[in-house]
Design brief:
seven-stranded mixed sheet; 22 strands
């Protein structure tokens, strides 16, 4: 049995891991690489495998860095089923079509403003490719055993990261023995606003675990509400604008939930809140319809994401109208790393205003616009054009949906018996090294940090 790491190693996007036996070929996740435009496009276009040869794809959750490459697989001949949870099916129906639409629209806009210099880009895939991938999705319930390929049995276990997220457990027949592989996908925190915490699986032989925050300790979750309240009050006092680039899945719902709690306590004044992301709007509606899929919010609130002055912007014209509006107001818009979507247009029109605050509320991968803002760059490029940054940039780090170093170490140490080997993925070099050192200090050996396209034999 062999595992090859084709993405999400040494970086936090492009999760793709290929599990092969003499009888089966199964891909764990197929996410998009995100970061520097040219480098990401090259990595996403150049597949190191032949999708038509897969027996199955096992998908941990709907975030684009885990699911966004599925339409590329369909475009290149994938016909095998894609197994995931039912919530992930619902979310992918929104997110993959939105991803295709954004790529087409962003390419069109980029090519328009670069018409004179002849620079052009092409979308990775279109809506037809996304629909072809969606037709392959096959839902299974948490803890339900299924057989993705000959000699393999699998289960999806609640990962506690986002709605429908799963750890992927695969049991493989190896002669007279079986070996259990556990891929955590993105592992949630032990403490979460909305999600139930992940359980501890048993008898894991090979562990593939994320390390996004392997070298850091998150700020206490309880700090998020107070910090958000401070920024909202400051925005109102300054008659300004608060722009929140937010992931459509989970982070948007958490922001709405916190604003709702602040408002119910009269801790913030009434201020217009614009949800300017069709995808985030649809996902919030899924949360509202299916509360059984996540941990019911406390306080017995029947409408945890509802605000009296929440305005949903559905059309591009409604979005553009904010450019002419006077403050104060709040805009929540995708994408969370500022790599596409309507947030780019809001930033383009407001970065040079000193009455604007940009609130970074999630992880920002290397090479993304969000990362440059997070690092307080004075000048940034949007659609290839340079903009000066006069807006104030603030961060809210306590809302992360990823386990931190403490959570990850606790998870590994809770496995009994200890895995035969541990592979650290989905993390930058610094965080992977920090987690590896921590595990070694705890007496946990045989920890590997794979390189891109590196293979390991599993005995």
């Amino acid at each position: 049995m062999k595992i090859t790491f084709h993405g999400g190693v040494g970086e936090v996007t492009g999760s793709r891991h290929l599990l092969e036996t003499k009888d089966a070929s199964v891909l764990l996740d197929c996410g998009l690489f995100q970061g520097h435009r040219r480098e990401s496009i090259a990595k996403n276009r150049d597949l190191p495998f032949v999708p038509s040869r897969f027996d199955a794809v096992l998908l941990s959750h709907a975030h684009i860095d885990h699911s966004g490459g599925l339409p590329i697989l369909a475009k290149r001949g994938l016909t095998a089923p894609i197994f995931c949870t039912a919530p992930t099916v619902d979310l992918c129906e929104i997110m993959l079509l939105d991803s295709a639409h954004l790529q087409e629209e962003d390419a069109k806009f980029f090519n328009k403003i670069h018409a004179e210099d002849g620079e052009r880009i092409e979308p990775l895939y279109g809506e037809d490719d996304a629909r072809a991938a969606l037709a392959l999705l096959s839902p299974v319930g948490y803890d339900e055993e299924f057989r993705p390929a000959r000699g393999l049995r699998a289960r999806l276990l609640d990962a506690g990261h986002v709605l429908g997220s799963a750890m992927i457990q695969v049991d493989a027949a190896m002669g007279a023995h079986r070996r259990r592989i556990l891929f955590t996908g993105d592992l949630g925190r032990r403490e979460s606003l909305l999600m139930r915490p992940a359980g501890i699986p048993s008898a894991v032989d090979y562990l593939i675990i994320e390390s996004t925050y392997g070298g850091r300790r998150h700020e206490p979750l309880g700090d998020a509400e107070a910090r958000l309240g401070e920024l909202v009050r400051a925005t109102v006092e300054e008659n300004g604008r608060l722009l929140i680039p937010s992931f459509a899945l989970e982070r948007t719902q958490e922001i709405l939930f916190l604003l709702r709690r602040l408002r119910r306590r009269n801790a913030i004044p009434m201020v217009p809140v614009f949800l300017d992301s069709p995808m985030a709007t649809q996902i919030t509606e899924i949360f509202t319809r299916r509360p059984e899929w996540f941990r019911a919010p406390i306080d017995g609130d029947p409408d945890p994401f509802g605000l009296e002055d929440l305005k949903i912007l559905r059309t591009p014209d409604q979005s553009k109208s904010l450019n002419e509006r006077n403050g104060p107001f709040i805009v929540i818009s995708a994408s969370g790393m500022c790599e596409g979507g309507r947030i780019l247009h809001h930033l383009r029109n407001n970065l040079d205003r000193d009455d604007t605050t940009i609130l970074i509320v999630g992880y920002q991968a290397e090479g993304t616009l969000g990362r440059r803002l997070f690092e307080r760059a004075k000048k940034v490029k949007i659609f290839g054009l340079e903009h000066s940054v006069w807006a104030r940039v603030e961060t809210l780090q306590s809302l992360s949906a990823h386990a931190d170093g403490d959570d990850l170490a606790w998870f590994v140490k809770s496995l009994n018996p200890r895995p035969r080997r541990i592979f650290l993925v989905h993390g930058g070099t610094e965080n992977r090294e920090a987690l590896a050192a921590r595990l070694k200090a705890d007496g946990i050996e045989r920890v590997s940090s794979p390189g891109l396209s590196e293979s390991f034999m599993l005995d």
